[in-house]
């Protein structure tokens, strides 16, 4: 592989005009596609195989034309202090508002609170339910403006009015912190390379890759039913890996220049060696993201595939566009150790260069491996402790910031009608096989009324043929509580007995039941997903490192870092630690898909650092160095780059903590803290400590397996010439003195 990539690097360097033209054309084509594509609607959310989804599908069949996918709005009215909404003046204001709401061209129905029993017992709060023909993301601005104007008109007449539901849903905003994250990445690159031109290359290529990826997602969003969070996550991951992969190539290019090679040869060798690590690191990320399909939740699968496509683009850009741009840059990209004049270059070098920080740190770890290993494991174990209290759920209006009208409407409804009112359960009774459908429905209604934590059971609503009924059940507890979850399981548990007695089938759906089913499905899929992703990546790393213990160590280290990161997420988003600093206004259960999503993404990203850092050690070991010296050599060449890559990735992910969408905020924080733990504790401390303890056994591979495995030559052995074999590196002598070998 190294020889093949070497040829690609040299070809891209020589034919840079052609390569650059191709990527500019792809960016232009994707941009035109994005601007000309129809606007994406609201992404459908389905969970095949669950009871909630089966009930929803049954409703679509038995109650045609009910616009189940249409947007809804709850306009909540509260009377001034000491008054009731039923008072003459207040009632007139509410009725006028209802008439105004009915005038919208996209409105299908508006329920009058005074005829629909939508007034609280104390008479202070009422709500009007508005249903639309289209989804919240497809609603025209005129319809949203009319909704807001009707509410404002009622406020002007003295009522408190808030709007809940998904009618006012909008694309999440990331805020200025995303730009700050990219700015931090730029500063780190300048410090790492000592050159503005060299620092600009990874940023430029990452932005091109993300531009192509996100534009393509936007162009296909309507056709493939992609949600707004799909492009946001693709941007988040694409930026991070795009900068990192380009950083690896440019860093190796400067190292080759420092060894006296011509620029075209240096570009070829950089792509042949560091490019090999980029290919395998990218493959692990792609495997982890595409593997999300195992969960069988279409939305999650689409998110994973879209992000994987952006990662694949980042790999291709690193292998082709980076060497092409290096050809354009010429002498403006300095060899390793040199800086541009603007950043202090041109000064006389000291007579004897001091060993860099990576060399000194690796030498310390090789001398004290047990202490470093124990300290790292204990620290990560302590950070992981909160994960034992992990509670999973999906966000609703109750998790919105308190400044939003959706959250205030949620609180008013909880105050006036009870905490369970915001998460009603919809019980669907399929009595088609029953001899007496209405009697079967009556039995179901009576059984549910006798259950614990049930506040209200509405009269059944039948379809036209009278063989299917909908019953709304209002729990006494809030939607995300364990008590409500027990109630859902209790109703479903009673279904078997009802079927045996009456022949009718009972199904529970609604947003609360759907959330419970999603959480259960994600929990059930976590172990199979871990086995698939870690298993495939383990096999891939065996091919890369030609070792059994090194991939095993990589996988165990990942489990430590991802568990510690989940512990940090629980501490912040569930317990509220540092919530004010991070802008977390409402604590509660951790998003259900967070654990499995973090497992997928963090595993792929963790293997980036593992592959890049350990391949340099493997390369040194293959070229004749003993195990301890190979660790030091790997850190001498790779620690600075891996550190810079980790800081950049943390900065990019942290930029998404400023998002207005709670899911994006949580994912941004979780990925940032996971990269911190994995890069600086696992890869920079635990990995060298374990390798130092294993010694030569770390690179052991059974002879029969060695014969079977393909030789991908990630270390670039095929690129070495006889002249390289006879070259002596004075820095290695200095490293041997430091480590004592």
Topology:
Layout: H1 2-14, H2 16-36, H3 51-62, E1 72-78, H4 88-102, E2 107-110, E3 125-132, H5 141-156, E4 160-165, H6 177-193, H7 196-224, H8 228-258, H9 263-290, H10 298-329, H11 357-367, H12 369-384, E5 392-393, H13 405-417, E6 425-430, H14 437-449, E7 454-457, E8 461-462, E9 468-475, H15 482-502, E10 505-509, H16 511-545, H17 549-574, H18 579-582, E11 590-591, H19 594-622, H20 627-654, H21 662-694, H22 703-708, H23 722-725, H24 730-739
Parallel strand pairs: 5-11
Antiparallel strand pairs: 1-3, 1-4, 2-3, 6-9, 6-10, 7-9, 8-9
Helix pairs in contact: 1-2, 1-9, 1-10, 2-7, 2-10, 4-5, 6-7, 6-20, 7-8, 7-10, 8-9, 8-10, 8-20, 9-10, 9-16, 9-19, 11-20, 11-21, 12-17, 12-21, 14-15, 16-17, 16-19, 17-19, 17-21, 19-20, 19-21, 20-21, 20-24
List keywords for this structure.
741 residues; elongated; disordered C terminus
- End-to-end gap: 32 Å
Mean pLDDT: 82
Q: Specify the biggest β-sheet.
A: 5 strands, antiparallel
The count of strands amounts to 11
Which structural class do you get from the secondary structure elements? alpha+beta
Beta fraction: 5-15%
* Gyration radius from CA atoms, angstroms: 30 Å
The general outline is: elongated
Number of helices: 24
Fraction of residues in helices?
55-70%
Unreliable parts: 722-741
């Amino acid at each position: 592989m190294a020889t093949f990539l070497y040829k690609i690097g040299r070809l891209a360097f020589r034919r840079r005009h052609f390569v650059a033209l191709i990527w500019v054309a792809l960016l232009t084509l994707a941009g035109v596609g994005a601007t000309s594509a129809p606007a994406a609607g609201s992404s459908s959310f389905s969970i095949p195989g669950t009871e909630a989804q089966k009930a929803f599908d049954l409703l679509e069949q038995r109650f045609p034309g009910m616009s189940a996918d249409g947007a809804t709005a709850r306009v909540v009215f509260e009377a001034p202090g000491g008054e009731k909404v039923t008072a003459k003046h207040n009632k007139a204001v509410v009725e006028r508002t209802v008439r105004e709401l009915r005038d919208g061209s996209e409105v299908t129905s508006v329920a009058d609170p005074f005829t629909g029993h939508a007034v609280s017992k104390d008479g202070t709060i009422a709500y009007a339910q508005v249903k639309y023909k289209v989804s919240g993301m497809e609603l025209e601005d005129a319809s949203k403006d009319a909704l807001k104007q009707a509410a404002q008109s009622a406020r002007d007449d003295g009522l408190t009015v808030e709007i809940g539901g998904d009618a006012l849903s909008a694309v999440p905003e990331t805020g200025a912190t995303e730009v700050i994250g990219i700015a931090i990445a730029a500063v780190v690159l300048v410090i790492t390379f000592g050159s503005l031109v060299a620092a600009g290359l990874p940023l430029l290529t990452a932005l091109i890759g993300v531009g192509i990826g996100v534009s393509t997602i936007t162009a296909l969003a309507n056709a493939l039913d992609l949600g707004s969070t799909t492009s946001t996550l693709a941007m988040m991951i694409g930026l991070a890996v795009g900068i990192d992969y380009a950083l690896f190539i440019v860093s190796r290019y400067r190292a080759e220049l420092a060894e006296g090679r011509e620029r075209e040869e240096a570009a070829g060798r950089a792509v042949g060696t560091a490019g090999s690590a980029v290919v395998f690191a990218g493959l692990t990320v792609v495997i982890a993201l595409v593997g999300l399909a195992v969960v069988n939740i279409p939305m999650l699968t689409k998110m994973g595939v879209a992000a994987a496509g952006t990662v694949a683009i980042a790999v291709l850009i690193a292998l082709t566009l980076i060497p092409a741009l290096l050809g354009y840059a010429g002498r403006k990209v300095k060899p390793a150790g040199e800086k541009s004049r603007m950043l202090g270059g041109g000064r006389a070098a000291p007579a004897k260069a001091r060993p860099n920080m990576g060399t000194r740190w690796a030498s310390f770890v090789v001398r004290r491996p047990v202490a470093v290993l124990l300290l790292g494991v204990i620290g990560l174990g302590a950070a992981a402790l909160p994960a034992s209290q992990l509670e999973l759920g999906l966000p609703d209006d109750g998790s919105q910031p308190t400044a939003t009208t959706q959250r205030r409407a949620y609180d008013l409804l909880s105050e006036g009608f009870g905490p369970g009112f915001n998460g009603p359960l919809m019980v669907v009774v399929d009595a088609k096989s029953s001899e007496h459908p209405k009697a079967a429905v009556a039995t179901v209604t009576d059984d549910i009324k006798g259950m614990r934590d049930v506040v209200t059971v509405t009269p059944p609503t039948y379809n036209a043929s009278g063989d299917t009924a909908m019953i709304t059940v209002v729990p006494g507890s809030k939607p995300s509580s364990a008590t409500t979850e027990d109630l859902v399981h209790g109703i479903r548990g009673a279904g078997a007995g009802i079927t045996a007695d009456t022949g009718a089938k009972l199904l529970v759906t609604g947003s609360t039941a759907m959330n419970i089913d999603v959480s259960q499905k994600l929990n059930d899929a976590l172990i199979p997903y871990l086995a698939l992703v870690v298993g495939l990546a383990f096999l891939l790393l065996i091919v890369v490192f030609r070792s059994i213990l090194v991939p095993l160590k990589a996988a165990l280290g990942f489990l430590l870092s991802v568990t510690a990161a989940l512990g940090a997420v629980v501490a912040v988003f569930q317990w509220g630690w540092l919530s004010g600093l991070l802008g977390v206004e409402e604590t509660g259960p951790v998003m259900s898909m967070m654990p499995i999503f973090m497992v997928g993404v963090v595993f792929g990203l963790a293997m980036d650092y593992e592959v890049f850092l350990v391949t340099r050690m493997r390369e040194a070991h293959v070229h004749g160095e003993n195990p301890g010296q190979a660790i030091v050599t790997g850190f001498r060449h790779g620690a600075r780059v891996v550190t810079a890559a980790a800081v950049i990735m943390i900065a990019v992910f942290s930029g998404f903590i400023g998002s207005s969408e709670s899911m994006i905020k949580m994912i941004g924080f979780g990925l940032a803290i996971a990269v911190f733990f994995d890069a600086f504790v696992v890869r920079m401390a635990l990995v060298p400590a374990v390798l130092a303890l294993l010694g030569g056994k770390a690179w052991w591979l059974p002879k029969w397996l060695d014969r079977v495995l393909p030789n991908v030559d990630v270390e670039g052995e095929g690129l070495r010439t006889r002249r390289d074999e006879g070259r002596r590196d004075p820095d290695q002598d200095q490293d041997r003195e430091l480590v004592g070998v």
